[in-house]
Every structure is written in structure tokens, then in C-alpha cells.
Amino acid sequence: MSVYIDKAAQISIQQPLSNEWFTNPLSPAGRLCKFVRPDFKQYLSPAVSRRMGTALKCTLSSALACVPEEKRSLLDGILTGTGLGSIENTENFLLAMLEGEDGLSPSNFMQSTHNTLGSQVAIAFNCHGYNITYAHRGTSFDSALMNAVIKFRLNEFKSALVNGVDEMTEKYFQLFDQIGYWKDRDVTIEDVRKATSPGTFAGENSVSLLLTDQPSDQPLCELCDTQLLYRPSDQRLKACVEKMSLEHNVSRIDAVVIGNNGDKENDEEYRRLVQLLAPDATQIIYKHLFGESFTMSGIGVYVGATCLKEKSVPSHITIDNKALENPQTILVLNHFKQLDYSITLLKSC
Amino acid sequence: MDALVQELKEKVIQALNLEDMTPDDIDANAPLFGEGLGLDSIDALELIVLMERNYGIKLKNANEGKDIFKSIQVMADYISKNRTK
Known about the structure:
Strand content of chain A: 15-25%
CATH class of the largest domain in chain A: Alpha Beta
Oligomer: heterodimer
Number of strands of chain B: 0
Number of helices of chain B: 4
CATH superfamily of chain B: ACP-like
């Protein structure tokens, strides 16, 4: 059973719903970078979207852009990973509660739960299939992706949509700031690349991947496998990659997508992982363009898949600024606080 | 009364997030539900909250809303007679 990433769409701090970042990326500015909003009216009528928070609008727009209309109701599953859910609505609701518990606005309450995102996509798609939301901090997207792959392996899925969504509010940003999660000054791309100090910068993302068991005319790539590992030993990490490679006839990893985000400790762990698992591979970075969030690893998979489809890795997303032509296999690595790890193997079609 | 109608239009636009509308776009005598603004049942809840928060009016019977929320003008009439703040 093969699984393909058939289509993908993203809304982030780069140009929305486009691959413009691949050739002409925007330079992030500041410590908290917000969504570059698309023209929502192209996807959502004002009557439908007027009660929606930003995360929900972005989720629906990326999902609608990703899945062709004729395939929407036929999806076997919609799986969503989100660390913070609809945090904007959650905060609005809680702030209103502080003012008094009488007369609370119903809209903020209705849309304050994490699973609002996936359920609203299902309603928009008229899709009655499997619908699940993972809210597992830094492995939320990875969990959703692994769930989807398991369902394909069990022959329960022929097509599914996997989303990775997170927005960042000022208040939540400040909370994270107090524990030193962000850098103490505005960052540049070079700051993130060098990673000589603690902290990173915040981004926002809504990435949607359409997975199928049959490739269409122009799939992005094959999704060979994905695994989640908790506190793995080096031996277990190596064994996992070797098993994936063996099962999918992969003899060489051409490139590895890593989540370097400018935080010294975080990036040192990726350096160690690359040395362990694919020392000769080209190292692809993406968080210097997209920022950090709980589900930014979804953008990592999207970046790797896009490189395979475009048959090139541009120099501005490699760690040594050297382009790579015609990659055939890409390993996507993610770790969250050196506790939870995910490994995803992608192969060109 | 005209001032209250204008204020009510502004509060309704804000509470219901009618992004593309201005007070001038709302006919004070047009139906709020169905035709006119085309509001729905969730909007009705938002209007109940709006009246309570801004004018201290607590609807004891939800069915009252059917009559009170006929139009902005009817709402303004009701508020002017029953407001506590």
C-alpha cells in the first residue's frame, strides 16, 4: 500500500496559498510574525466567515484550496493537528468571563475548542468520514499524519486530508516569552541560521495535505512512512530509518528536512540527528522563513514534498546555502524538546 | 430615538461581525431575520447578550425575542422603554 501527497496548500507568514517562498521568500520581521492573510472572500462567503476566528478562516481556506471540489465529500478522513486550537476565540471567551459570567457571547464559546477546526472543514466539505483532532503540543501534526498513514495501511482510507494549524496571540506570546521561549530582540534570517543564543521567533501556519492511495497526474511525492518516537535511543532512531529505507527500497537519503529555529539547544540536537542518521545528506531548513509553532513540522513535510515535486532544493533553504538538483528521497525530522521525535520518509514519484 | 437607532446599528455590526456593512446599509425597518440582514439563531443569542450587556435588559422568555428582534427600530423602541442602564 502506497500513500501519496497528492496536493498541498499553506497559509503562513509567507505568501499564502502559493509556492512563492520557493523562489522569492518573504523575510520575517519581528519576534511574532502573523499570518499573511489571503483574500478569504475567494474561499469563504462573508456570511459564513463573519463569526470565524483567524485560525478557522485559514484552516478552511487552505483545506478548500488543497482539495478539489469533486473529492471533498469523498474523503475518508479529516485529521487535524493543532497545539493551541482556536486560541484567539478561547481567549476572547475567557476574557469575557472575567468581566462577568452573565451574557457571554456564544460564538467565541462555540469556536473555542481545538476540534472546531476539523469539524468545520467537514461541514464545509459535507464529509461524514473519520474526523479527529490531535492536540499534542509539538507532535500534534505528526500524530495526525501517523494516524492517517496507519489508516491507509489498514486499507480504511483511500483519501484523507491532514491539517496542521496554529495561530499565536499576543497574550500567549507573552506567556511563552516569560519562560524564555523567544529571542529577546527582533530576529533576522541570519540570527536563525547562526543559532548562537537561546530562543526562536513565532510564526503561524495552516498547512493542508491531501493524501491518496493513488497518485493523480501531478502528485507532490510518495509518503513512504512516518513514525513517532518518545525519548528514543540513537540505536532506535537509526533502526527506524533503516527499517523505513529497507521497506521502501531507499538506498540513499538525498536530503533531510530539519527544524532549526535559531534556538541554540534545539539546533544542536538537529545537528546531532543529522550526523547520526544522514550525515551526507543536504540539510534543508525552513523555520528561518516560517517561524516556530507547535505544528510547524507540517510545513516541514510540505517543504520536503515541494522540493521533490520541483526536483530541486533552492540554496536559500539549505543550511550551507548550496542548491541540490533532482533529489529523490527526503527524510523529515522533527523533535519537540528532545522528548518527542518524528521521522517521515518521502520519495519522488 | 434616532441616536439610539444609530447606536444600535453600530453595536449590531460589531457584535455580529458584519464586516462589510456600515450603519447606513441597515434599514432600521427591515426584518433582521430571514430577509433583510438574514440573521440566524446564533445571531439571536448574540442580540440577547448585546441587550443584556449594554442596556441591562434580561429577556426572561426567549420567545419574546421573536417580537423584539423584528427590526432595529422595534429593538430601539423596546430598549428605550425597558433599559436599566
